[in-house]
Amino acid sequence: MNENTDTPARQALDALAVDTENTAALDTLAQSDVLVPVPEDANPEATADPAVVALPILEQPGGDPIVPVFTSEGELAGVLPSVSRYRLVPLGALASQWPTEELSLSIDPGSAHPLTLTSEGVRTLLART
């Protein structure tokens, strides 16, 4: 698989690694599509509805649960090689539907410049669209 991993979302993450207050990078990220792995136990009816996104929740040892999302198939395969299905979702749309409980969002976990946001950060920082 030969793919370009230098997507606008990836560039925004790289910029945010240098300056977490970079509003242009936050805007780009909020408007970018991300790959959301489809959980193995997801309800098939829910996965067919384009308005509903089943969130894959990973338990962190000693930390809050996280939802991993990815900027490319390469990033997804590097962290979750057994995942065979995903949905392409605008990151801002996730923010508008984010659950209220303490659930963090991790963008490209395991990459050189991952970004993890608390549930409040998801709703406030990414709801920029």
Q: Would you mind describing this structure in some detail?
A:
The structure is a single chain. By secondary structure, the chain is of the alpha+beta class. It has one domain (8-125): Trna Endonuclease, Chain: A, domain 1, CATH 3.40.1350. It is built from six helices and five strands. Strands 2-4-5 form a three-stranded mixed β-sheet. Helix 1 (8-18) runs antiparallel to helix 2 (23-31). It starts with 7 loop residues before the first helix and ends with a helix.
Beta fraction:
15-25%
Tell me the count of domains: 1
Global mean pLDDT: 83
Residue stretches low in confidence (pLDDT < 50, at least 5 long) are none
Organism: Streptomyces hintoniae
Protein name: SseB family protein
Pfam family, one: SseB
InterPro entries: SseB_N (IPR009839)
Summarize this entry quickly:
It contains 6 helices and 5 strands, in the order ααβαβαβαββα.
Which tags fit this structure?
about 15% strand, 6 helices, three-stranded mixed sheet, SseB_N, alpha+beta, about 35% helix, 5 strands, single chain, Trna Endonuclease, Chain: A, domain 1, about 130 residues, SseB family protein, two-stranded antiparallel sheet
Topology:
Layout: H1 8-18, H2 23-31, E1 33-37, H3 44-48, E2 66-69, H4 73-79, E3 86-90, H5 91-96, E4 104-107, E5 115-117, H6 119-125
Parallel strand pairs: 2-4
Antiparallel strand pairs: 1-3, 4-5
